[in-house]
Amino acid sequence: MDDKLDPFVGVPQQTEYYQEGTMFPSGFLGECASKVHQLGMLCLKPLEKGLFFSFKSLHMDPLSLGGLSLKAQKTLYFVASVAFVALGLPFAFLGKGFCLSVSAFKKDFVWQQLQEEVAQGRSKEDFHLLTLNMAGVPDWLAERNYLKPINERVHSVTDSLERYCGEQMPDVICFQEMFDEEASKKLLEDLRQKGYMSFITDVGTSSRYLNSGLFLASKYPLSDVVFYPHPIKQGIEQYADKGLLIVTVHANDKCVIVGNTHLNGGAEGGGYLPRAAQLKAIDAHMDRYIHDRCKEGKKIHGAFLSADTNVAPLDVDHGKTIFEFEWYLQQLILNPKKAQTYLQQLKLNVEQTKALESLKILEKVLPAKDNITDPSAWKEFFFHVKKIQEANFFEVNEDLETFLTQMMPKQLGGPMLVEKWHHDVDSLEKALAGSAVEMESSWIYKKLIIEPKRLDYNFTRSKKDLESEKLFQSAHHLSTQVLPIAELSDHLPVYSHFRL
After folding, report:
1. Secondary structure element (H or E) that encloses residue 395, with its range
2. Domain map (residue ranges) of the chain
3. Residues 322-341: pLDDT tens digits?
4. Distance between CA 265 and CA 243 in Å, rounded?
5. Which fold, 106-316+410-499?
């Protein structure tokens, strides 16, 4: 390892494992635990290869495999997938055991920082932030999504960004879905060559399969690095340790706070509610973090949140695809007063009126300020949600769509914490600006039109809530642009310019 790097693992300072300056580049407490984890991940490879062949058989290239017919190729890949899955399952269980056995020794992240500062040559008032979901998922998932493996795409990241940003390369870059260890190392090295000096990688544990996928690179020194796993996850998201990474960036003589997060995926019925809960916890963590930094006497010149929210720029789902009970629950989590107004104005029949007693239970168990980040509190809330959903009492009212349209007008970012956090991406066309024509023939542009939730955000915090935030001031948002770089991922980079 380069002598210029001083790698150490950090975790939230309240945990007993925090040892500043300790050399753990792998993210594990001890070389033995690291080797056991590597062995466990190696045991998963045959099963992953079987899944890769399975999806490959569905996405056939007529020119692959020496010009064999499509039928022959499908047969060959199908046989290979069955063989590898059958062979891989026993090894996968063994690998899972290895990973679980050392999960207690895994640190929350690896933090590497150059010992000397890099000359920035930029105005002290300007701050540039970029976010990008790299879709660095295992190869079988990449194949399912019609993407090349991450290790074939990661080599062009820095050159592609430099081609569009020029001398205004972002001060901080937040990546999501950088799950692959080798790809992360390659990306880190490429960014070092471009003048970045601080890196947070290998964030979260991978005891169930994947870590958080979060990766942060900065041209400035960092401090007070913390990671908070999401308090609740649903669906396939339970196999990744997604959460919120927060750092303090020392940009010349100014301090700014940057959060990096990735919310629960899933469409209607599968992602709205956990996303709402995660947003509440994120807001609480950011509030606490700002409060603590101000309490330490640090003057904060801006707070930002880079996020793949899995929510469209303009949330057009209200009154259309969200079932009314889910809409109510989403509002109950994010805006309890609005949820109560919603119930009061609905025309309920006798059975639905009786069911209101069940809904009052939800209001009682809804996590409040003192336990809003507590996983057990959210688990209890979702337990009661499931019981009410199974009762199937909330039938659709004829005037529901009209009512919801009036009750909940379209808002930026859908069900977001819009009172505190602001972004400037209200449409794909506006975000692409002059690059829209260039992108129209691109496969990713067409995919974004169909799935606008693949557009990500750089939020800036614009409201002071706490008395202790006297040392906090909001940054001024100047511009946000979506860079038309289609070869990196199934998302596009979002690049924002702020004035501190």
Report:
1. none
2. 28-104, 106-316+410-499, 324-398
3. 455 666 777 788 877 777 77
4. 13
5. Deoxyribonuclease I; Chain A (3.60.10)
The β-bridge relationship of strands 457-461 and 494-499 is unpaired
In what helix (H) or strand (E) does residue 273 lie, and over which residues does it extend?
A: helix 272-295
What angle do helix axes 70-101 and 31-43 make, rounded to 10 degrees?
150
The reported pLDDT for the residue numbered 421 is: 82
Residue from 327, 311, 338, 320 nearest 426 by CA: 311
Task: Tally the residues of the chain.
Answer: 500
Residue 196, SS3?
Answer: coil
The answer to whether 33 and 105 have CB atoms below 8 angstroms apart is yes
Q: What angle do CA 301, 307, 308 make, to 5 degrees?
A: 170
Angle made by CA atoms 51, 454, 142, in degrees to the nearest 5: 20
Label residue 23 left, alpha or beta by phi (over 0 means left) and psi (-120 to 50 means alpha): beta
Q: Mapping DSSP to helix (H, G, I), strand (E, B) and coil, where does residue 247 land?
A: strand
Own/partner long-range contacts of 428-434 (Cβ < 8 Å, ≥24 apart): 428/313, 428/452, 428/455, 428/482, 431/313, 431/455, 431/480, 431/481, 431/482, 431/494, 432/481, 432/482, 432/484, 433/481
The CA–CA distances, whole Å, from 87 to 47, 51, 82 equal 7, 12, 8
Dihedral over alpha carbons 185, 187, 192, 193 (to 10 degrees): 120
Supply the pTM of this predicted model: 0.83
Report yes or no: 124 and 253 within 8 Å, Cβ to Cβ: yes
Looking up tokens 């529901």 gives: 400
Q: Where are the alpha helices (DSSP H) in 366-498?
A: 375-391, 400-407, 428-432, 436-439, 443-450
Residue 383's pLDDT band, with cuts at 50, 70 and 90, is: confident
Give 41-61 as a DSSP string: HHHTHHHHHHHHHHHHTTS--
Q: For residue 299, give every residue at least 6 positions away whose Cβ sits within 8 Å of its Cβ, in sequence order, or none.
A: 254, 255, 471, 472, 473
At 252, the pLDDT band (50, 70, 90 cuts) reads confident
